[in-house]
Amino acid sequence: MADRDGPLADCPDSALVPPGPEPRCPVDITLAALSGRWTPLVLREFLRRGRATYSELSAALPALSDKVLSDRLAQLTAAGVVERHRTPGWPPRVHYLLTSRGRELEPVVRGMWEWGAARGDAGPGR
Fold first, then answer.
1. For the whole model, what pTM was predicted?
2. What pLDDT was estimated at residue 95?
3. Is 86 left (phi over 0), alpha (psi -120 to 50) or beta?
């Protein structure tokens, strides 16, 4: 029997539908915004900086390929987590700015940081 006294006990069963084309469960909605191996780390950089250029993000996350970084920026922009701003002129300059919706994800990333920090010495799966 499931524990109905846990932290998500008040979550209605109607919200706990299997993932479909459009997420409905609040956990699934959050995962959709943060999906992809590198997305939380890109978000971490925005939470540290507030705004960043592509070059700054690339330097902060050197293991990321250009394609993956471009994909993650497009994903976070589509989710309303960051905004893309282009400055007119030549050469064109682009910077990305964390939105208020993106700042709302700080407790999620902080929780990931704290959980990982507490287990960092244990190694994967321990």
1. 0.80
2. 96
3. beta
81: nearest Cα among 22, 23, 32: 32
For strand 93-98 and strand 82-87, is the pairing parallel, antiparallel, or unpaired? antiparallel
Burial 107-120 (b: 16+ CB within 10 A, else e): eebeeeeeeeeeee
Model confidence pLDDT, tens digit, residues 99-122: 999 999 999 999 999 999 998 876
Name the DSSP class of 6: S
Residue 43 tokens read as: 């978000």
What is the dihedral sign for C-alpha 58, 65, 50, 118?
negative
> Is the separation of the CB atoms in 90 and 109 below 8 Å?
no
Q: Specify the DSSP class assigned to residue 13.
A: G
Q: 105 near 33, Cβ under 8 Å?
A: yes
CA distances for 18 relative to 2, 10, 24, 119, 120, angstroms: 17, 18, 9, 30, 32
CA angle 71, 120, 3 (to 5 degrees): 85
